[in-house]
Amino acid sequence: MPEIVRFAPSPTGNIHIGNARTALINWLVSIKTGGAFILRFDDTDQERSRDEYAQGIATDLDWLGIKPARVERQSARMASYDEVTQKLKDMGRLYPCYETADELDRKRKRQRARGLPPVYDRAALSLTDEQIKAYEAEGRKPHWRFQLDHKTVAWQDGVRGAQTIECDSVSDPVLIRADGSYLYTLPSVIDDIDMGVTMVIRGDDHVTNTAVQNQLFELLNGKAPAFSHHNLLTSATGEGLSKRLGSLSLRSMREDGYESLAVAIFAVLIGTSEPVQPLADMTALAELFALDKVSRSASKFDMADLGSLNARILHETAYDAVADRLEALGVNGGEAFWLAIRGNIERLPDAKVWWDIVETGLPDDAIGKSGDDAEFYAKALELLPNEPWDETTWKSWTTAIKAETGRKGKGLFMPLRVALTGRSHGPELAAFLPILGYQRTSDRLS
Ligand code: GLU
Does pTM surpass 0.85? Predict the structure, then answer.
């Protein structure tokens, strides 16, 4: 069945790899089922929502290869929310509360001290008209809670299987703040109904919300969409990700030159029954992915593992796929250069390091040639063939050096590598030598 899904970030910061996981899983389900992906900005919090963050999120999704069929903003839909709010008030399901944050906090502490769950006691439901008038006279503004039906809400979760929540253990949720602004809880339900969302896929930190929203869906629409709650990612040290952890933001990964495909594969496959592995493209990822492969416990995200996946992907990447980006980096070595070095880089910008070694000479931290090898280098220079060079030049040259000097293996190759690249590790010299060319090679041997 074509699933209409949505990714609904609050534009209050840069999104991180955990948010990308939610977006990507939604995207994969939409392409797998021939459905549609809606990008919806949950921007009812006017104070914290910023347009530049919304733009940034759109850019991040585009980079990942997610193309929304539709983009919506909750801030543009206030009239619908106000209308439904009135309906809920008329039904007697939305009630005003006047407790301050401090008062609520003290209530919860008292409940905990008595060993009770910190569930809102519905005291506001028994306020008299006089008490309400007195609060209003004090200048207090009400916040509004949805009166839950104290029943069991059950659903078949796409990831977690059969779920039940007893609503008498859940506080009546605040839907409208004292300043009149909406939390996303109600707008989200209204949008999902109006936009025909058939499956809500989000992190498992929303499981309790689902009980609440399920009741709102039933009240307003007669039925709820399907729900799937995926596991969350944590940092390598086990902390939850937050928008403040700048280093795990998609933006920083893009700027650091990671492959969007590597980030996408990693964000999706980590914490599933599938091993993290290089794949050709998003379609291949969609084919491999299924909601029931997602594990139910949190998964640790380690940048080092992303780095090695990124390297594995680059090692198989054709020149055409990266030519523009190489040029933007100032790497003009063409296909031969790319094929020579792609196996030796972790991130694309590393190609510039090797290109500089070709073009501008040895890096500052180059390993120096050993004085003990002076005679060897002189011999190697003498035996250096004339151009034109190709992939066979290295072999014929080193065979000749071997015959003359009696050196072999590491003793033969390592001094040459060090002289030509300033490094003890690096690209296959058979491919690298023709790129370097006669002039540079002889200069470096002298
Ligand atoms: N704005 C909410 C969030 O980012 C949306 C949750 C949902 O997908 O319903 O957590």
Answer: yes
